[in-house]
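Page 37, continued from 36.
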């Protein structure tokens, strides 16, 4: 039994096998793109066979990985394995009616995400992004608070001048998102600048605070985690320890 498992473990750890998996995932991505075109029915048959072959390969690949882990509990203890298993399992669901064609195409596109689990560098990036969620969450909350305050101010001053963008707090928040992304924000400001000549202070201050300072803080947190630097939480803990000594 050990030699049986060792055989599949050797296959799983093989660089050649990993290369084949990546090649099949890329082929799946190409297939998803090609299937978006209007193709003659005579070629659609070959594309369907190609899709079945890809699905079969993914099934064999996931079985090899499950056997090499020696136990299903160990296999499913890894979140990435669960992610792969769900994608492969969903791909096996038969879809017969025409209404489900959209779902089928969507599943084929999602299969491309499996390349994240195959390439270690991609997994490292995703893991790092997940670690940033607590810190980035507080910054995002602060951004929303500033946006809400600026949105309320915008409705008070610009609501009657430009009701399409500032008629209520909901429209104001959507407008501020557009301003924060620099999407034609000058034109939005131009709608109210004639009535409120100092409206530029409102827009420029919002861009500096939200789109420059806070957004760069988000980028800084992500870079800090990915490079393994000392985070904000570590600095606060260190200051707390220094104050108690």
């Amino acid at each position: 039994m050990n030699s049986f498992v060792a055989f599949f473990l050797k296959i799983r750890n093989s660089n050649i096998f990993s290369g084949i998996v990546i090649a099949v995932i890329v082929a799946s991505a190409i297939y998803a793109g090609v299937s978006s075109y209007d193709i003659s029915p005579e070629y659609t048959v070959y594309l369907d066979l190609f899709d079945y072959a890809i699905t079969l390969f993914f099934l064999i690949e996931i079985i090899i990985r499950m056997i090499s882990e020696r136990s299903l509990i160990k296999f499913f203890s890894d979140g990435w394995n669960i992610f792969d298993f769900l994608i492969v399992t969903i791909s096996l669901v038969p879809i017969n009616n025409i209404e489900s064609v959209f779902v089928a195409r969507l599943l084929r596109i999602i299969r491309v995400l499996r390349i994240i689990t195959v390439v270690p560098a991609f997994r490292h990036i995703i893991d790092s992004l997940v670690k940033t969620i607590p810190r980035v969450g507080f910054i995002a909350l602060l951004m929303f608070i500033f946006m809400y305050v600026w949105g309320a101010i915008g409705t008070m001053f610009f609501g009657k001048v430009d009701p399409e963008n500032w008629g209520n707090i909901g429209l104001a928040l959507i407008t501020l998102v557009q301003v924060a992304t620099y999407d034609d924000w000058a034109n939005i400001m131009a709608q109210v600048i004639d009535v409120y000549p100092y409206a530029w202070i409102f827009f420029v201050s919002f861009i500096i605070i939200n789109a420059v300072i806070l957004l760069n803080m988000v980028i800084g947190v992500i870079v800090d985690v990915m490079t393994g630097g000392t985070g904000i939480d570590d600095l606060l803990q260190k200051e707390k320890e220094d104050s108690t000594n």
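The domain at 2-118 is CATH 1.20.120.350 (Four Helix Bundle (Hemerythrin (Met), subunit A)). Flag for discussion at group meeting. The chain is about 80% helix and 0% strand.
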